[in-house]
Amino acid sequence: MSLSAVHGTLTSLKSCQADIGTGMDIVTDVAMDLAEAQEVNPGIKEMEAMILECARLDREINYFVDVVQQVTAEVRQPEAMFSLSAKVKEQFTERTARLSDADLHSHQKVVAFKDSIKNSLNQGGDVNLEELDEDIAVTLSQVNFTCPLTQVEMVNPVKNKKCNHHYDEGAILGLIKTRQSQKKKCRCPVVGCGNADVRESDLIPDQMLRRKIQSQKRNNNRT
How far apart are the first and last CA of the chain? Predict the structure, then answer.
C-alpha cells in the first residue's frame, strides 16, 4: 500500500465521521420530540445508548487517524511500508486499551444530547429565573439567535460550556483555527466576556436553540 492510498483511506474515515455526527444530531432530535411529549419513554434510554455507541466509534476513529498519521510520518524508506499495518495495529490497541467508557459521557454530542433532553422535559413548565443559579439565569435571559461573530442568525449554534455564550459553529471554529495559526489564544467574541481561551473542546452543540431558530424560520416563511 502506498502513502497516497493511506491518506485516501483517512479522508474516507473523516467523511464517515461527519456522517456519524449527523446521525447523532438526528437521534437527538427524535429523542427531543419524545421528551417534549412529556412522556416517560424507554426509547429515550435506547437512544442515549445509541449516542454513546456513536461517541465510542467517533473516538476510535480519532485515535486510529492519529496513530496512522504518526506512524506514516516516521516512514523514511519504502520497505518500511511492509510493517506499517502491524505498527498501526499495535499502537492503536495500546492506546484504546487505556480508554474508559466513562470518558464517553464528556463527548460533545453526548453532553448536547443530555442537555437537550433535560431542556425538552422542562419545556412544559415555566422557568423561574430567581430559583436558578445567577450565571445560568443571566445566560437564559441573554441568549438570542444572532451569532456575536457574524452578526447574523446562527445556523448551527454551539454553547461554550465555560462562559455559556453561543456562537455559530462554523464561525467560532474558523476563529479558533485562525488564532491557532497566529500562535494566539481565542478570546470569546461576546463583548465584556472574560473568557480569554476558547477551545474547540469547550463547545457543545445546542440542539434546543437550533430547533427554535428553525421553528422561527418556518413561521416567518408562512407569513
Answer: 58
